[in-house]
């Protein structure tokens, strides 16, 4: 077992029974939550003998676990708690979960099969800065409720399929930076959601040309894809996104002439294109 700090190290003083629950690997914590939710839902409320742990078992209420009005777990906010182990497959039984933040821990292993589809009420997913690995399953996909997805700073690899992103009609932020994802950058994400403001694909193993598509994100503020193996020209439709404030594409293999229509990016504040083979006929002050 890892010598990393346990969950209990960062929690306030709790009764002994609660300490027994939280001083354990994360997959056991999830199993306990799922079991209690099942027991709570299995009781006939009309009998008046409810077993809804959020209200009637106060020793199980600890920092980071929230419940909705139906006494179901709807949020796990456990960043920087020293959690170790894997994400238990039983987490998919927390079907009322809308916010999941497990960032800045020591979690490892793959995401459970069907994770994104099973938790179809998720709005915010942040599992960044862990040691998670594996590929995004071809049979899994984001749901329409999700607005923020942060998978950055893990060890994920493989392609990000368009089918994974297609149902995410309300997606606003998608960050997969600092992993080992490969294949083409999924510019098709902008066809599915016009609400996107932040896309970060930097520090991966993406290859090939940047395909047309980002021009369909009218509200995009930041597009980051530096430190990959991207090649070819910068697609012209990027220059139509007048809201864009940051275009970060350094340390790739991009080539060709920077189109003069880049001057249409009137809100651009940060332009990073170094480490490529790009050229321009524009005067320097037109890019300032």
Automatic annotation (TrEMBL):
SUPFAM superfamilies: L domain-like
Highest taxon in the source lineage: Eukaryota
GO cellular component: membrane
Keyword hit for Disulfide bond: no
Pfam families: LRR_1 (PF00560)
Alphabetized UniProt keyword annotations: Leucine-rich repeat, Membrane, Receptor, Repeat, Signal, Transmembrane, Transmembrane helix
Taxonomic path: Eukaryota, Viridiplantae, Streptophyta, Embryophyta, Tracheophyta
Name the record gives this protein: Uncharacterized protein
Topology class, membrane: Single-pass type I membrane protein
Family matches, as InterPro entries: Leu-rich_rpt, LRR_dom_sf, Plant_RL_S/T_kinase
UniProt keyword annotation of Repeat present: yes
Segments traversing the membrane: 22-43
Compartments reported by the entry: Membrane
